[in-house]
Structure formats: structure tokens, C-alpha cells
């Protein structure tokens, strides 16, 4: 079920009144679990079994792990959680990828192993809920969290529909305490929730989807376009993926607020970052913090000297790239970010970088933002390309620059989308809140702006098929 579809509004229109009417905490949570499974099963009901298996295993593992102080038993229980969750994820997401890679080697020896391929449908959001439930058992193993004894609460933690299929990847220590209380949204949460949903829909539909039409058409026919046109497509993809994913996160947070639940912010104006380290503290925050806490630190972090620190950064980002998809293009994307972070760490030394607001707008800050954006833009090529042939054709067309009679048109369109993206980000950045529309003092103006954004989005939704969110494939 897509957030940017009318069926979702029907779903929400049924869920919310029933949820508000239910009298007890337990009845509300049971209903939300049922609604979440319906939401997830709307794509393919068979995948609900995978969600249930992960839930049952990690609930039991968490309780057993907490009950024993035996180190070997605790490690064994953690291994069960890791093997079960990563085994399911690995089979559905990476089986054919590794078969393809192995087949490339065997073909050189004259062997053909096509029969090893299986027809596997990737369950929507499997990477997200796998990481979320793993954080629960790992935190219990590290004695940073006590397990919940309420199975319904844990089932809701794993399956909560607003963030189930594309995050944010919530931690149990942040979400479970909220689920243990009776969910009752206040007036402020409802206001913020409505604003976030409208803003998220606008970003996704009016910016992400419309930019995506240019991107898809050009990348599917690269050989027909000139250099400036394909460069415009890459820049527009950077706009598309940001609007698409941040739009989803806004809608997820807004929907959760309508249910009385606070989800973490997943984006903090990443294209205003002044260096690559800051970018990863502003982009997909729930994933980058997960990789840091459960992978980078587990590898040793920065505790074993500079060289090992750089290796740990590289390994973390390589695996982060592979998390995004079973393709060498994603591995290269992660490797480039790992290289960027390692080089920046090398020059940074022991100095800490925080994702804080700029003291002032000056040439140095603007220049740093531009350079960071360019570095990130290079990596987006490998993220968007569907094959190595596409990547090499793109690069060759940039190297062998071809003039275009449509240069002005493509530059104008690209600048227009960048302007819209940065305008919304600057408003968030300066107000330090995603719900900056609520700061408008005039209720009439506030309602007028919000209504206009929603109406424009609805008109577009009537005219076009709802486009899936890019991160659904992960």
C-alpha cells in the first residue's frame, strides 16, 4: 500500500476512528498490529509469515538472553537471532546476486550454471524491519535494554505500519516505552502530523515524482541524449531520491503522530552539509546511526589506531552499500562514501564534527556545501545506474562532451528543481523544525498554504499512477 495512493487514505480513514474509539492500551495495540499486517499484506499476504517469524524468534531470544548470565548461552542466543534474520534477508535479497558473481567465474572455465537461479520475489521493506528487530536483540546482549514481556507490544514494534517498509529504523529503547503507554495523541501532535503528511506528499509527488519522469526517460535512453542532458538527469536524480525518501519519512512521522507516537527524524537538510561526515549525520539518519552503533563500533570503531579506523569506515560503508541492493553498483556507491569518510577523517584528526546550523552564510560555507554536493552527486551515478554498461556509457558521454541545442531548457529545469529543494530545506534549516508552517501566525494564511499544497498534490495524483517509493526496493 503506497502512501501516495488513494487506498491509503481510505485505510487511514478506517484505522484512525477505530483506534481513537478503542478504550484500553492493549486493545489499541492489538488493533494496530492487525492493521499493520493488513497494510503489509496488501502487497503480498505471504510475506506476513516472514514478519511473524522474525518477531517470534527475536521475542523469545530476547527473553531467554535476559534470563541467563552465561556468556556462551548469550552468544549462542544472539547467533540464533543473527542467523535467522540475516539468513532470511540473505536468501531473498542476495541469493541470485552471489550466484551471478559465482557464475561469472565458472563461465571462464566453460561451466554454465543457469539452473542455480531461482525466481525470488524480494519482500518489501525486509532490510528495514530486519535491522530494526536485530537492534533489539543486540541491545539486550549488550545489556543496554531489558526485553519486553508483552508480545503484542513487541509485535507492534516490529510491524508498526507507518515506518515498516522504509523506516525510520527505530530502536526498541525509543519506541517500546511509547507502546507500553496508552496511545493518545494530543492536539499539537495532530497538527504536526497533518502538516508532515501534507509536506511529505508534496515533496514526494510534486518534486520527486515529476523530477523522476525526466530521470527515468533519460537513463532508459542514454544513447539518445547529449552530455548536458544526462548531467541534468543525474542532478535531477539527486533531487528525486531526496524528495522521494524524505517525503516518505515525513508521511511516516506524520501518520505516527496521529496515533500518538513519535518517530525519529530521518533527514536534516543533507544537501546543506559542509562535509561528507556531516552529510551522513543528516542523510538517512536512522541507517547511518545503526551502521555506526552496530557495525562500525563492533568492528572496533576508532579505538585501534588510524589505519584500522579507515578500514572500519570502508567496511561499514561497503556493507551499507550492499544493504541497499544486490548489485556491484551499490557496493561501489558504498565504497566511494567509505573512501570519502576515511579521507575526511584523515584530515579531521581528533576534531569532532557536529551537524549544527551555520553561524553565517559566507563564501566558505557555500563553497563547502557545493563541493560536498558534487562528491555525493558522483556517487549517485552508481546508485541510479541499472548496470555497469549504463555507468560506463554515462561516464564516456561526459568525458567526450557533446553540445546540445536544448542546453538552456535542461539547465532551467534543473535549476528550478534545485531551487524548490533548497527553498524547502532553508525554511526547515532556519526554523529548525520540519513543521515550520505551524509558525505562521495567521491561521488563515497557514490554512491557505497547507490547503493549496494538498490540493495541487491531489490534482497531480488524479492525473498519474502512484509511483512507488524508491526505497521500497531495499
UniProtKB/TrEMBL annotation:
One of the record's GO cellular component terms: plasma membrane
Subcellular location: Cell membrane
Keyword S-adenosyl-L-methionine applies: no
Pfam families: MBOAT
Gene Ontology biological-process annotations: alginic acid biosynthetic process
InterPro entries xref list: Ac/AlaTfrase_AlgI/DltB, AlgI, MB_O-acyltransferase, MBOAT_fam
Topology of this chain in the membrane: Multi-pass membrane protein
Keywords: Acyltransferase, Cell membrane, Membrane, Transferase, Transmembrane, Transmembrane helix
Main location: membrane
Transmembrane segments: 5-22, 42-61, 77-95, 115-138, 322-343, 363-383, 406-424, 445-462
GO molecular function, one term: acyltransferase activity
Family: Belongs to the membrane-bound acyltransferase family.
Protein name per Swiss-Prot or TrEMBL: Membrane-bound O-acyltransferase family protein
Species of provenance: Marinilabilia rubra
High-level lineage: Bacteria, Pseudomonadati, Bacteroidota, Bacteroidia, Marinilabiliales
